[in-house]
Structures are given as structure tokens and as C-alpha cells.
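Researcher: Quick one. two chains, 174 residues in total.
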Amino acid sequence: MTNPIEILGFVAAVLTTTAFLPQVYTTWKTKSVEGLSLTMLFIFISGLLCWLVYGFLIDSVPIILANFVTVILGFLLLFFKIRYKNR
Amino acid sequence: MTNPIEILGFVAAVLTTTAFLPQVYTTWKTKSVEGLSLTMLFIFISGLLCWLVYGFLIDSVPIILANFVTVILGFLLLFFKIRYKNR
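Model:
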């Protein structure tokens, strides 16, 4: 069975990932990407990839899952940024 | 000496925290908080607090530091949201 510490980690993962979803949804719906900085996106995605590797190295499933999902969302924002930049 | 895994964690912490700073700076400068959802801020701060406790429980200094700094920034955004909502 999963231990209570892991459960807390999963709760944390769900909460911080959920808080990030409106940004992705709003960008997708409005196609407005002026407010998204490409530099910021690169820094953010690099950070998430480091967290992902760190999660594997310390064997933390919540960190792996949280950053796996968020890095996909980060790449999605990057895709929107490139795709909608000329609108 | 700090081990390579911890260093990777610190790099991750610096990168994701740095990526969050422009949001705080822009909100502070523009005093524009319409785009900030109070519900999202509560979910985000709750998530960060869970990560903070999780960091202590699994003894991960990078997770503790990253979420300690980010939770302060989160509370700062919450303060801006409440302070500037009537502008």
C-alpha cells in the first residue's frame, strides 16, 4: 500500500498541477500569447526537466508524476506560443 | 559536500522559481489582478504547502527551499490580489 508521505506528495502534485491548468486553457481558448515570454517558458521547461530527473534519482513517484504532467503542459504552452505568435 | 543529486535539485529549484518571478513582478508593477483567480491562488498555495511538508518528510532540501520561496511569492500574489482588487 502507498504510504501517507506518498499520498501527501500526490495531493501536492494534483494541487499545483491543477493551479497551472487555467493558464494552459486560457492560452488555448484566447490564442493570446503576448503575455507569455519565450525565455520564461524555456527556463520553466528546463526547470521541470531537472525536477523530473531529480525525482527519478531520489525515487519520488509524486515528483516524477507532477513534473511529467507539468512538462507536457509547458511544451503545450511553448507550442501555442510558436503557433499563435503571428496573430 | 553536497552531492550531485542535491545540486541538480537546486538547479531545478532556481529555474522553476525564476520562471515564476515575472508573474509576481508584473502584478506588482501593473497592479492588474483581474487575470489572477483567487480560487487558483488558494489551490496553488495549498499545493505548495503540501510540497513543503512533503519535502520535510522525505528530507529533500531542494524541495523544501523551492517551495518555501515559491509559497512566499504565492502569498505575495494573494496579498496583491486582495489589495488591488478595487482598482
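Chain B has a mean pLDDT of 92.
Researcher: Thanks, that's what I needed.
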